[in-house]
Prior knowledge:
Elements: E1 3-6, E2 9-12, H1 18-26, H2 31-36, E3 40-44, E4 47-56, E5 59-66, E6 72-74, E7 98-101, H3 104-112, E8 118-120, H4 142-146, H5 148-151, E9 157-160, H6 165-178, E10 183-185, H7 195-212, E11 215-216, E12 236-237, E13 250-251, E14 255-259, H8 266-281, E15 285-289, H9 294-311, H10 322-335, E16 336-338, H11 349-361, E17 367-371, H12 385-403, E18 406-410, H13 435-441, E19 444-451, E20 454-462, H14 465-468, E21 472-479, E22 484-487
Helix pairs in contact: 3-7, 8-9, 9-10, 11-12, 12-13
Amino acid sequence: MLYVTTVDGKAVLQPLSTxxxxxxxxxxxxxxxxxxxxIQSVKFRGSNWxxxxxxxxxxxxxxxxxxxxxxxxxxxxxxxxxxNRNVIDDKTLKSQPLIIFEGEMDCxxxxxxxxxxxxxxxxxxxxxNIDPNRDDVSxxxxxxxxxxxxxxxCKEIIIATDGDASGQVLRDDLxxxxxxxxxKYLKYPKGCKDLNxxxxxxxxxGVKETISRAQWCxxxxxxxxxxxxxxxxKYVYNLNMGGFDxxxxxxxGDFTVVTGHPSSGKSTFVNHLxxxxxxHHGLKIGFASFxxxxxxxxxxxxxxxxxxxxxxxxxGYFQADEMKQLRCNKWIDNNFCVIVPSFEDMVxxxxxxxxxxxxxxxxxxxxxxxxxxxxxDHDTTGDPMRLYIGLFIKTLKRFAQRHDxxxxxxxxxxxxxxxxxxxxxxxxxxxxxxxxxxxNKTDLGLIIHxxxxxxxxxxxxxxxxxxIGKRGQRVFMYNEDSAHFNEHKENDY
Length: 493
């Protein structure tokens, strides 16, 4: 004789009445399955109640009751466990997914349709989500904690809550606590809010099809290729510099590092590149040039470049009248802006990002030039330089992608090396401080080297050779009067 605990004490389980059997059969429940699960009847408070015993091993530790007129009750002081809990650690069912239902009737429906490894929550769905951090003060999900080590072995869990709003709340709460990576959820046929209604309308076939179509919980960050939004191919800007266009092109969203020994012409070459972008593509450039005085050094260089290129003087000197100077100044203001710190500023990464954002949003810059990296105030407190540089580059790359601009950084090598003959050796990207980061993370790596009156421009790294240029080098002659670089005809270095 089996007993269950009611609010009034113990009650004897008895066979179901005819009315109770009729009720279950109208819901499509197989009576043999019901009896096998221990579903019987108890009588208390003058009514017959259908009893759903909760077994833990051979012991009934809780029970739920309902009358035919929809009165519900649980055992007083019953242990919070899953309905049909014993199947969780049944080794013969390990190959099946574990299915968690919101109610016993849905659970029984699944069992009789062949999904033996089905369980149900004891308390139904909450009205709103419960913070997992409050589980220590709330016993709502104590039944989950009670057998979490058993559930932890399940590789696939189907959360089959009702299709209404509260059912979605329960689904979200369970998936967060279990781990969304191994959770699926059911989407019921139109007009059905749970699995029992699906069975009554579409039969066993409908149940099996519904469960077979269970969908994985979506987790941001992991997608099939077809799920990804299309990416518009970015426009590639040639610099109209002859053969060098095969090696070096600019795209918004990319990151470039330029290196070379001091006084090798890095800044001047970059200046020429930027002017070419302005001339041929109408891009606007933002300079953060910390080694040059913008009002004199940089301005003089831009004026030289403009007056030579746009006024087309054929003499070795330039005579620019007031009108031409005004046109030149207007061209500079329309196409360039400068980021200039005050003496009081801490010119660190947060300061730089803030000013870059202003240059992009307010001045409409398409390219940001940081020249040089070495002149910034680098806060490496608590972190080695390698980690800091990794963060520095990552931050600038994310900025470039987020704002759809090109970011170019000039960085000096750590030391000047000479060969056996005493000639200054051409540096490489690995000569920059903590160089592996600079080489690995950059999209374009450009080396500028001046020797014997020639300027070598070597692309040592190109992440997308089919798009932004192939690795290789070109030799240029620099015209001091015009601030222009012209490709050397021989191009042999």
